[in-house]
Amino acid sequence: MRTVSDRLFWVGTYTGDQGSGRGVHRALRASGSGAFERIECAAEMADPSYLATHPRLPVLYAVSELDEGASVAAFAVGAGGALRPLGSRPVPAGPCHVAVAPGGDCLAVSCYVAGAFAVAPLAADGSFDGDPSVLPGQGSGPRKNRQEGPHAHSAAFAPDGTILGTDLGADLLRAFRVEAGAARLVAELPMPSGCGPRHLAVHPSGTVFVITELANTVVALSPRDGYADLVVTGESPATADPAPGDATSAAIKLSPDGRRAYTSTRGADVITVHEVVGDGTGLRPVADVPCGGQGPRDLHVDAQWLHTANQYSGDISTFSVTDGIPKPQGRPQPAPTPVCLIPAD
């Protein structure tokens, strides 16, 4: 039975040939132990690899990471985490990330295979309000096995409304703005050659931290004249100890108080704690903690708990973070190829 303090989470999965998930799953986190209970399918869907929630409404968004028939879908959230479809929109091939604007008026989808970003307008009830604007990418990088062309990987909304999108294939941050209901490219910001920018987080100080998948680093960028004009101000390792040669860093999340960042690195299979230094302008890796599974693709952190979605071992690990350093809490809970984990509220 759910208690008042239990918390509902959404789990993105891979399905079919890529995994054992059935679609978007829901999981209830017990308030006392932090463990997840009753991980079950909430909506059948092909490869919902990334999820996001509306900032004000009980609406969930999920990408369907397909090469053909790719889409982004919206669901109304009902009692007990029941999901009711609100429609979907087609997007370019291989969508792997979705982010919703703080005002709830649009969302941004990053399409890895196509190397494009898509920005879809949203109606007042959180449903789609027209077709997405598609912003194709171009360029390549020195690592030809991964950077033969553009690969859009994630996007985030900066405080001034600029959409910042990482392009792993072209070693770029792309900056977009939405005007008159349509998105347009306003800047391309170069990143270190061969780094493969993957995910990013915007610190309350204004610094943008970008984790790189191919160099296993975190790059810090500071705005000069708004977030379409960023300059690299530092770079630090994504792990405290040197990562093995086949390691690929994945997620970066900030603690609620902004004092720490947490990153995940596959291959090394660790969560790394970083201290935020220099008034929020840089990171210093402090400690690596085994993730408890294999392939920590995503993580969630709040004031009490940290969780990792371990793709390759098919489970979710729980850690206490009340003193900043993750401490394992029991055994990982089995989950069907989890690759994204977000709270429902």
From TrEMBL:
Classification via InterPro entries: Cycloisomerase_2, Lactonase_7-beta_prop, N2O_reductase_N, WD40/YVTN_repeat-like_dom_sf
PANTHER family given in the database record: 6-PHOSPHOGLUCONOLACTONASE, 6-PHOSPHOGLUCONOLACTONASE-RELATED
The protein's name in its UniProt record: Lactonase family protein
Alphabetized SUPFAM superfamilies for the sequence: Nitrous oxide reductase, N-terminal domain
GO molecular function: 6-phosphogluconolactonase activity
Transmembrane residue ranges: none
One cellular component term from this protein's GO annotations in UniProt: cytosol
Record-stated family: Belongs to the cycloisomerase 2 family.
Residue span of region Disordered: 131-158
Organism of derivation: Actinomadura rubrobrunea
